[in-house]
Amino acid sequence: MSINSWLPDYQKRVNDSISRYFAKISLDITNTVELEFIDAVRHAVEWWGKRLRPILAMLSYEEITKQECSREYIDAFIAIEFMHCYTLVHDDLPCMDNDVLRRGKPTVWKKYSETMAVLVGDVLQTMAFEEISKLDNAKIVRILAQALGNRWVVLGQVKDTIESQENYTIDDIMRVHDTKTWWFIASCLIIGALAGWVDFEQTDPLRKFGILLGRAFQVRDDILDIEGESAVTGKSVWKDIDQNKWLVAMLGIAETKKILENIKNELETCLSVWNNPKFADIIEYVVKRDN
Length: 291
Description:
By secondary structure, the chain is mostly helical. The relative contact order is 0.11. The chain has a single domain, classed as Orthogonal Bundle (Farnesyl Diphosphate Synthase), CATH 1.10.600.10. Helix content is 70%, strand content 1%. A hairpin with a 2-residue loop joins strand 1 and strand 2. The chain has helices at residues 7-25, 32-45, 52-65, 71-91, 108-111, 114-132, 138-148, 153-161, 170-195, 204-227, 230-233, 239-242, 246-251, 253-269, 277-288; strands spanning 101-102, 105-106. It has a two-stranded antiparallel sheet with strand order 1-2.
C-alpha cells in the first residue's frame, strides 16, 4: 500500500471537519474587529497542512475499534489540529522564533499583528478543549493538557528559546526534541485509542510507536532546515544552522541522517503489533517528507 492511496482522503475528511467548524462559528458575526479576528484564526488553521496529528488519532481509533472513524469522532479530533496550530502561531512570534513564513504563507503575527497572534493562539487552545471534551472522556482531556503543558511542549519551547545550547550534548538536544515533539505526537495515538474506550494500559504499543515517530519527525525537521527549500517546506530554512542549533550543527548532515535511519529501524520493529500497512506508510512519510 502507498500512503498516497489513502492519506489524501484522510486529509480531506479532517479539512472538511475544520471547514464545517468555521462555517458554524462565522454565521452571526458582522462586527469588523470580530471578523478580522476569526479571519486570523482561520488563517492559522486553514492553511495547507499535513494534518498528521488528527490523522494519527483517526488511525489509532480505527485500529482499536476495527471501524472507520466517523464524522462525530473526526469533529472531536480536529481539536488536536487546533492545539498544534496554537503552538505554531506562538512559536512564530518575534519574541520566540521570529518567523515570517509558515506553510507557505505569512505567519499570523506578520499578516495581522503580534497582539492578534497572541490572542489567536490563546483562543485555539480553548477551541481545542471545547471540541475534545465532546468525547465525554476526562482521560482524553487530561492527556491533551499534559502533552502541551509544563512538562512537555511548553517546557520544550522554554528550553529552546531561553536556555543556552552552547554546552549541549547530543542527549541534551534529543531531550529537548522529545519534550517539544514526541509526547504530543504520542498523545494523538493515545487519544484515538482512548476514544475507542480501551484502558490506558492498553495503549503502551501505540505510545512507544508515537514516541519514536515524534523523534523521527523532529530529526527530519533538522535535516530539512539544511536540505529543504522554502517553496516546498513552507517555512524559512537555514535558521537553525545559522544559530548553531540542533543536531546538524553539532554532528553534520551525514551523522544526523544515520540517527534518523536508526529511529526508523526502531519504528519498524513496532509494526509486528498491528496488521495495518497504514502504520508502515506513516513511517515512510515522516522520515522522507519534504515539508
